[in-house]
Design goal:
homodimer; mainly alpha; Arc Repressor Mutant, subunit A; 2 domains; two-stranded antiparallel ribbon; 7 helices; 2 strands; 59% helix; elongated; DNA-binding
Chain lengths: 167, 167
DNA sequence: GTAAACATGTAACAGGTTACATGATTGT
DNA sequence: ACAATCATGTAACCTGTTACATGTTTAC
């Protein structure tokens, strides 16, 4: 249940509403984990029902601010340490590349060009840590950004190499 | 519907049964796309119902050999060329790394050690192309293997670097 | 006043996982 | 005879997507 753990993780930093959390998925976690609006709101209700989080404030327009509970923090720590992560392989880009021999060389080359373009565009500006963000000594957020930079570069180089291999 | 397209792709190479296809997901596509037994068999029925594939032979133990139809090949080509692939971000490894500040430094270091170990283990032997495999000029299969090698190396280097950043 | 942003909720459907269920064939 | 492998099918459940539905507040 990674989506729920992602929510617990985000709330471990500070309390937030569903709306806030949704924005965090599109910014901080944009290259890490995806979630839809529908998913976030229903997960918050579930997490609230099981006591992992609680409503700590209500604001205008029905806004509900949630905070992590002690149980929620325990669960988050458990998830982070309990088992080794496994790489869930479902790579759309590679899947297509795998079957490129059913199209002609020009179309295959065009495909790798698309991958290169995607890699060049996809590079987001590293966000400055916000003022109210308390700097923790080992900066795991920037380690994730660094992974992203390396992945993007790797993918671009690979697609360039692959493009030249055709014919 | 990438799962169904993966099946069309595999069948474009040669006819196969559900059982055969399942093994291909665990070998050729092990680092590309994951599928369960349950999924494969029901997808084959759907694809057969919509005329993308057809039963070309029946063997012992109820074995059914499926082959791609002309419509199926058209659909496969369509999928490969129609739209740019988008990177679907759901990276379990990164998600955990992102929240490592809720555990202590030793546990965080252990996490990166796990990632390194996983990367070292995960490296599968590149399979020799089988005898009856007709060599196509640009070898897209080996391009996918190359991507994998680069990804594994990148991830190992990143985890090593990240581990040293702690404290 | 009105558009943009804020803010939530739910229903229908598609895709994926786990577990159960069954049986035939091959090799030793 | 027995185990391993071959071979398929289905039901319950969980996760994720798309679309609909509603209303408030802020800024211009």
């Amino acid at each position: 249940m990674s989506l729920e753990h992602a929510l617990l993780g985000l709330l471990s930093e500070r309390p937030a509403s569903g709306y806030d959390l949704l924005k965090l998925f599109d910014t901080s976690l944009a290259n890490v984990w995806h979630a839809t609006q529908s998913q976030v709101y229903s997960a918050l209700i579930r997490l609230s029902d099981t006591g992992m989080i609680e409503i700590v404030a209500e604001g205008p327009r029905g806004r509900k601010t949630y905070a992590l509970t002690a149980d929620g923090l325990t669960e988050l720590r458990q998830w982070l340490t309990a088992s080794s992560p496994r790489d869930e392989v479902r790579n759309n880009i590679l899947l297509r590349a795998f079957f490129l021999d059913v199209v002609d060389s020009d179309q295959a080359r065009a495909y790798f060009a698309d991958v290169i373009q995607m890699s060049n565009e996809g590079q987001r500006e590293p966000e400055e840590p916000s003022e109210d963000y308390e700097e923790v000594c080992p900066d795991y957020r920037s380690m994730v950004l660094e992974y992203d930079r390396r992945l993007t570069a790797m993918r671009r180089d690979w697609a360039e190499w692959a493009g030249t291999q055709i014919k």
